[in-house]
Amino acid sequence: MPLTAADIGLRCHDVHQGMGNVDTRSAHIAQLGTTRLIGMAANLAVNLRGLDVVEDANALRQIAAQELGVESLAFDSVIGVLEEAGMVRVRRPSPSKVQIDENVPYHQNLYELLGKIWDERAPSELERETVGLVNALAEAPRELEVVQEEIPEADLRPILAVGESTQLVKTLKLSDGTQLLYSPFFVFENPTVMKDIYEHHEVADVRNVMQALRGEQGLLVDESNPVMKDMLARGLLLAPTIKGVGGDASFAFLPYVADRQFLTVKKAVLEKAVQILACVRYGEHRAVATRIQSPAAILSRLLDASTNFTIRPAQRAQPAVLHPLQAADRRLPPERELGRR
User: Fold this and answer.
1) What is the pTM of this model?
2) How far is the C-alpha of 237 from the C-alpha of 224, rounded, in Å?
């Protein structure tokens, strides 16, 4: 699949996130040097955003190594990447003191800038194939046989070895012998439930539903679609129901979550984010008096510090649903808590 610069930056971040419990000294992982460097830069950038000034760069080096997986020996190179991208500026007010000014952009721009740097550094074909496969599996599972036709066997073996060790790529064997590659970052369900879906529906039909959800998070649920209905019944999708004068409506989500804590100890944060977006979608599709014409404008305002992360009363989309979740009329969690998507 063709990759945009933003896709590349995002997938490099994913690869880095997967390295958390892996021995990075292995020969296979050593072949992903550029991808890992950009991934570390992405992880550091999203955690620097909003700090304005880091007074002690040496303290940051230690925190980055302990908490963010940015190896101490790679720290200077990572900062160099962020300087190249215009996200930080290093100052040395004295010989013994190093400070960092941050200017990290949000979301798409962050990953686009880092993706361009990755491309300019001429990564190996193996790295390009790895990033490409991770991106493809983020869209939907793929048959192993199809992937084997697209990636040479000599390259696919180390890619799958890295994928297995980082948990970025897993294999699911169906009863007819078909082997599927899928990404646990993409799905919430366990492999057994995944297997049931593919046992009962054509792979292409499942992929179409997943791609539709990827194209519009908070997709209005179509009960007449057998694949979507089955996925809802099996708990594969988040689908909050919004009640309003326009009638009850459910909106399906298949969030991309790199940090597995959002499925456990930080689950409430993800639930709030989904409820907020579901309310906006309700205003877009089912509002009676005033329909939301630009969902992006609403969400952008909720992310705007200059508005104190709030919207005017006329802009509120079903706030009654949000009050029980303590998500309305208060500052939203910072971007790093809501996750990248």
Assistant:
1) 0.61
2) 16
What average pLDDT values come out for the chain (341 residues) when binned by 10 residues?
85 83 72 91 87 88 88 92 94 85 82 94 91 83 89 89 80 81 61 75 88 86 88 77 85 68 57 81 82 82 77 49 36 36 34
Q: Are strands 97-102 and 142-143 parallel, antiparallel or unpaired?
A: unpaired
In degrees rounded to 5, what are phi and psi of residue 172? Answer: -125, 125
H runs (alpha helix) in the chain: 5-18, 27-30, 33-48, 57-67, 75-84, 107-120, 125-139, 144-150, 153-166, 191-200, 203-215, 226-233, 267-285, 295-302, 319-322, 335-338
Beta bridge partners of 170: 182
CA 315 → CA 26, 299, 301, 329, distances in Å? 53, 11, 10, 12
Nearest to 227 by CA among 236, 218, 216: 236
Q: Edge to edge, what strands does the sheet with 53-54 contain?
A: 53-54, 97-102, 88-94
Amino acid at 265: V
Q: How far apart are CA 16 and CA 12, in angstroms?
A: 6
Say if strands 88-94 and 97-102 run parallel, antiparallel, or are unpaired: antiparallel
